[in-house]
UniProtKB/TrEMBL annotation:
Keywords, ordered alphabetically: Membrane, Transmembrane, Transmembrane helix
Pfam family of the protein (one): DUF6198
Name of the protein in question: Membrane protein YczE
Domain of life assignment: Bacteria
């Protein structure tokens, strides 16, 4: 039952991510990078989720000088499938054009992401590699989670800018408040 709950939580999280992408107000820097890579390099957003997770798992392993936590790939794989599925299903259903409908779509996305993240964390199973990186940076720099998450978000923001990802007000809010929810 724990594993079913885990998958459902990830699917809720990815529904929220898809809402923020569809809002066209900007996504988290990480998701902006994934969308930018998808649009400018090819493959789907979900495929880039898995590829980026693999890179992060290897990087995390290097930083910690421990074996790679490949179980995080399971989370990335389910997350990637979820994002691609929701984007496919929502593509024609939710296309906000007016500013207030974009705000509503973005806010729904944030709430759903919050619910998905909070419930996913309670399963305590297969951490998302970027979350693991946050904890590693916190430990290595002896700083707060807020600092390490903001630092990571700034790095992803720079990469998203390079790949012309969907950066907007929502992205900037996420960077400024990124560590507040962790």
């Amino acid at each position: 039952m724990k594993y079913v709950f885990y998958v459902l939580c990830i699917l809720i999280l990815t529904l929220g991510i898809s809402f923020t992408i569809q809002s066209d107000l900007g996504t988290s820097p990480f998701d902006a990078l994934l969308v930018g890579l998808s649009v400018n390099v090819g493959l789907t957003v979900g495929s880039w989720e898995v590829i980026t997770a693999l890179i992060l798992i290897c990087f995390n392993s290097f930083l910690k000088r421990k074996r790679p936590e490949f179980l995080g790939l399971l989370t990335a794989f389910i997350t990637g499938i979820g994002i691609d599925m929701w984007l496919f299903l929502l593509h024609n259903l939710i296309t906000p054009e007016l500013w207030y409908s974009k705000i509503v779509c973005f806010e729904i996305g944030l709430v759903v992401i919050g619910i998905g993240t909070a419930t996913y964390l309670h399963t305590n199973f297969a951490p998302i590699p970027v979350d693991r990186l946050t904890l590693i940076i916190q430990e290595l720099t002896s700083t707060t989670i807020f600092f390490s998450r903001t630092f990571i978000y700034l790095l992803f923001l720079i990469m998203a800018l390079i790949f012309n990802g969907p950066i907007g007000v929502g992205t900037l809010l996420t960077v400024c408040l990124g560590g507040a929810n962790t």
